[in-house]
C-alpha cells in the first residue's frame, strides 16, 4: 500500500511525540506544523485528527494543535479498562486450548524476546516484546471488539512507558509473570491465567503511575 502524505505526517508527528521532541502542552498552528514537516496544511490537519483520536494531541479550531499530556489519573483509568479487557481475553485464550492448534507461537516468541532483552538489558526491545505479548493475547481471544478497545489505548500507554523507561527497575518480576501466564494458558488453566495476569497488570499500573507522579510534573 502506498503511503499517503497524511500517513507520512502522522508517522512523523507520532515519532516526534514519542521521542519527546514535541513536549506535552506545546501548541502549534497548522501552518507551523506544515512548515516543520515540509508539507501542505491538508495532510497535517488530517494527521492531527487521527492523532487526536489516539489521544496524542488535541485539536481546537482557530486555537491550533496541542501535544496532549497524560496524567496519573488518565493512566490509572486506562489501566483499569485494559485490566478488565485483558482478563477476559486471557480467559478466552486459555479456554480455547490454542496450543493444540499451534496458535501460541506469538506469545512464546514474545516471552523469548523479553528474556533475551532482559539478559542484555535492552529496555527498548523489552518494551516492544512486552507490547507484542499483550497484543497477541487480545488478538488470540477471537473477539474483535476487544482488539478495537485495546487499540484505542495503545499509543497513550506506549508513550507513557517510553517516557518513564529509564526510571524503571529491571523487569525481572514482569518476565516471570508473563512466563507464568503463558504456562497457565498452555495448560488450559483459565482461572490461574486470569489471576496471574490480573496481578501483573495491577502491578504494572502501580509502577507506571508512581513513575509518572515522581518524575517531571506528574505529566508525560
From TrEMBL:
Protein name, as recorded: DNA-binding transcriptional regulator, GntR family
PANTHER family named in the record: GNTR FAMILY REGULATORY PROTEIN, TRANSCRIPTIONAL REGULATOR, GNTR FAMILY
Signal sequence residues: none
InterPro entries according to UniProt: GntR_C (IPR011711), TF_FadR/GntR_C (IPR008920), Tscrpt_reg_HTH_GntR (IPR000524), WH-like_DNA-bd_sf (IPR036388), WH_DNA-bd_sf (IPR036390)
Pfam name, any one: GntR
Presence of the UniProt keyword Hydrolase in the record: no
Keyword Transit peptide assigned: no
SUPFAM superfamilies from the UniProt entry: GntR ligand-binding domain-like (SSF48008), Winged helix' DNA-binding domain (SSF46785)
Domain HTH gntR-type: 3-70
GO molecular function, one term: DNA binding
Lineage, top ranks: Bacteria, Pseudomonadati, Pseudomonadota, Alphaproteobacteria, Rhodobacterales
Top-level taxonomic group: Bacteria
Key words of the record: DNA-binding, Transcription, Transcription regulation
Amino acid at each position: 500500500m502506498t503511503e499517503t502524505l497524511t500517513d507520512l505526517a502522522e508517522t512523523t508527528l507520532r515519532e516526534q511525540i514519542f521521542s519527546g521532541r514535541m513536549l506535552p502542552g506545546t501548541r502549534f498552528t497548522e501552518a507551523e506544523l506544515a512548515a516543520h514537516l515540509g508539507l501542505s496544511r491538508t495532510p497535517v490537519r488530517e494527521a492531527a485528527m487521527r492523532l487526536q483520536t489516539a489521544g496524542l494531541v488535541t485539536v481546537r479550531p482557530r486555537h491550533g494543535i496541542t501535544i496532549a499530556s497524560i496524567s496519573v489519573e488518565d493512566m490509572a483509568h486506562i489501566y483499569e479498562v485494559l485490566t478488565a479487557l485483558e482478563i477476559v481475553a486471557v480467559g478466552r485464550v486459555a479456554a480455547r486450548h490454542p496450543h493444540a492448534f499451534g496458535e501460541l507461537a506469538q506469545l512464546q516468541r514474545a516471552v523469548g524476546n523479553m528474556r533475551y532483552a532482559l539478559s542484555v538489558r535492552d529496555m527498548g526491545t523489552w518494551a516492544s516484546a512486552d507490547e507484542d505479548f499483550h497484543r497477541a493475547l487480545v488478538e488470540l481471544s477471537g473477539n474483535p471488539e476487544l482488539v478495537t478497545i485495546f487499540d484505542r489505548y495503545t499509543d497513550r500507554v506506549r508513550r507513557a512507558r517510553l517516557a518513564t523507561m529509564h526510571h524503571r527497575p529491571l523487569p525481572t518480576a514482569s518476565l516471570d509473570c508473563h512466563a507464568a501466564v503463558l504456562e497457565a494458558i498452555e495448560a488450559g488453566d483459565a482461572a490461574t491465567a486470569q489471576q496471574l495476569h490480573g496481578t501483573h497488570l495491577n502491578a504494572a499500573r502501580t509502577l507506571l503511575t508512581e513513575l509518572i507522579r515522581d518524575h517531571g510534573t506528574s505529566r508525560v
